[in-house]
Amino acid sequence: MDLLADLEARGLIHDSTDRVALAARLSSGPISLYVGFDPTADSLHAGHLVGQLFLRRFQLAGHKPFPLAGGATGMVGDPSGRSDERNLLDPDTLRYNVSRIEVQLQRLLDFSPGTYQAKLVNNADWTEPVRLLDFLRDVGKFVTVNQMLAKDSVRSRLETDTGLSFTEFSYSLLQANDFRHLYEHEGVELQAGGSDQWGNIVAGVDLIRRSVSKTAHALTHPLVTKADGAKFGKSVDGAVWLDPAKTSPYQFRQFWIQVDDAMIGRYLRMFSIQPLAAIAEVLGRHAVAPERRVAQRALADELTELVHGTAALDAARSATEVLFGGDPASASEAALAAVAREVPSSCVRTDELSDLIGLLVSTRLATSNSDARRTLQQNGYRANGALLSESSQLSDVGLVHGRYLLLRKGKSNYHLLEIS
RNA sequence: GGGUCGGUACCCAAGCGGCCAAAGGGAGCAGACUGUAAAUCUGCCGGCUCAGCCUUCGAAGGUUCGAAUCCUUCCCGGCCCA
């Protein structure tokens, strides 16, 4: 099965420029391609994985991937898919964000020397030196405002009260210039991205055709959604980040384990780099006994290892065994140490145990004293597996290994206390 | 600038002098059933030293025994006119 057919079967193709021409180009030999990531935050999130894995899939097929950090485009703000003007981030924040994202962009790809060696680029490198007048002559002259106004992202914004600033209006020119720059200096012939990027990508294809009379290709994937159509990549606590300091490997893995049955097949095809036949086999086993969550576990393990590494995956798994396995009171010391690294934890003195309500609030298992009381009345808390009530004394609960107290709210909210 | 309608808890949205911490829906939290799923059902969903008390209904003043509800001024938004 060739690469395009594989991507198609995985539900990863939303749109492309001339499909026949692209297929012909891909089969004629290695191609260089890029996917851009703007530094809107100091970490990428789960949704970005589709784009990152796009590069990975091409690299595995022998092509050369260019992950791009949007140091320049991030300064301007992409209006695509937004109903209002973005707040500009200050340059220091952007530089910091770029530095964080670059670390993540290097994780999933092979950077060792070879024909398909990945190369990290930052569009600030070639955009910042460009002089305004040169830009207007070398880029602006090849683009008509008529076309730009026709784009959905622009047109929808023209009808709003806030409008669209010239800054954001210009965004697609910068991205188009990126594509042309990479085409001319790195031989990049294909740009991929989410379906919301179609207009920006095609702007680059057009610019390349008009200014240097060459053919470049565009390929977009559908944006990932949840079963209810809600935005993907958000968990209870917010976005699912790739930065382990923001979303721990344990939480990251849990996010995938908790995926609906209704979506797991689709996600597995979109996110797993396993062959489709292997995925079909996993889904087959899952269908026989869905309660075992075979498919969710397979996806969770694969992605956790890919993003956080084998050691982090092992730690997350052993933490999971304690938290969702049997009695936490019988967990080994090593397993509890793993739990401590993966779920929120804190150290308290013995005398602090007497203030149950206060402790529930300070561990963030309750948002206020009232909330703590309510949840206690509703049998929402357990300590080392024992149900707590308003009159419970934590000092009466036996510590595990003489110093651990595992607090749990509901089914999957934990906080580990280490008593000193 | 004139007119007019509106600003209520995380969001939408009732209430229009006491029965209002404020209907209803959504989101969220807990419980039941399950499979760390979905659906369904139940409870909760401002705060507190919790049978009670305190602070809220754009802001500040005022009328009243009593105001989210009436009056004044101001701020913000929709629509119409200029």
Identify the notable features of this structure and list them briefly.
single chain; 420 residues; alpha/beta; Rossmann fold; Tyrosyl-Transfer RNA Synthetase; Structural Genomics Hypothetical 15.5 Kd Protein In mrcA-pckA Intergenic Region, Chain A; 3 domains; elongated; RNA-binding
Polypeptide structure, described:
The chain has 3 domains: 3-221, HUPs (Rossmann fold); 234-308, Tyrosyl-Transfer RNA Synthetase, CATH 1.10.240; 343-419, Structural Genomics Hypothetical 15.5 Kd Protein In mrcA-pckA Intergenic Region, Chain A (Roll), CATH 3.10.290. The protein contains 20 helices and 13 strands. The strands form 3 sheets. It has a 6-stranded mixed beta sheet, with helices on both faces. A 5-stranded mixed beta sheet has the order 9-13-12-10-11, covered by helices on one side. It has helices at 3-9, 19-27, 49-60, 73-76, 91-105, 124-127, 132-138, 145-150, 152-158, 166-169, 171-186, 198-212, 249-257, 261-271, 276-288, 294-308, 310-324, 333-342, 356-362, 369-377, and strands spanning 15-16, 32-37, 64-69, 121-122, 188-194, 217-221, 234-235, 238-239, 345-348, 381-383, 386-387, 404-409, 413-419. The N and C termini lie far apart (60 Å). The protein binds one RNA strand of 82 nucleotides through residues 227, 236, 254, 257-262, 264, 289-293, 296, 320, 323-324, 367-371, 373-375, 377-381, 409-412.
Distance between the termini: 60 Å
CATH topology type of the largest domain: Rossmann fold
**Would you count the extended β strands for me?**
13
Uncertain parts = none
Strand content: 5-15%
Structural class: alpha/beta
- State the shape: elongated
Indicate how many domains the architecture comprises: 3
Please give the count of helices.
Answer: 20
CATH class of the largest domain: Alpha Beta
Any guess at the CATH architecture of the largest domain?
Answer: 3-Layer(aba) Sandwich
Largest sheet: 6 strands, mixed
Proportion in helices? 40-55%
